[in-house]
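[Automated response] Your request has been received and processed.

Submitted sequence:
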Amino acid sequence: MNDSANIPSQFSGVFRSYTGAALPNLLMSLPMNAPVHTIPDHEVELSAIRAQGAGGQHVNKVSSAVHLRFDIRASSLPDEVKDKLLAMSDQRITADGVVVIKAQSSRSQEGNRIDAMARLHELVALAAKPVKPRRATKPTFSARMQRVDSKVLRGQTKALRGKVTD
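Generated structure:
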């Protein structure tokens, strides 16, 4: 039996826009217990731009950096995930609800495209992660007594700082 049928290829399922080499890095970067949402290719706008910084003569001739734009409001994500993404205070999300990611760490356009898509999936997975409910607790008796004792001691120290009268 062929074992390669069970391994996601670069064009299959959720990770259709990733190559095999980037798949383990993407899986490691996703938060635990976060549901994986598919993002169709037609909802993501990728454009190649020239990378910034030094690089010699070749950098002025090729467009290896990738600019990714993803409209949250027009996406097919669940409404709860959309609301969480729009409520995030992330500098990559514009006031119009568009995620803008610029990837230029790799020398190849394909590597930058993979990096940009991985960061988008990480952002969506972070928003999709369920919020852990807070369990109300109260301090123990000894912790309350220790707090009061330290406040009394601090008050006595501050009382000695007053003006000296003869």
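Summary generated for your ticket: The helical segments are 23-29, 79-87, 109-128, 141-159. The longest helix spans residues 109-128.
If you did not submit this request, please reply to this message.
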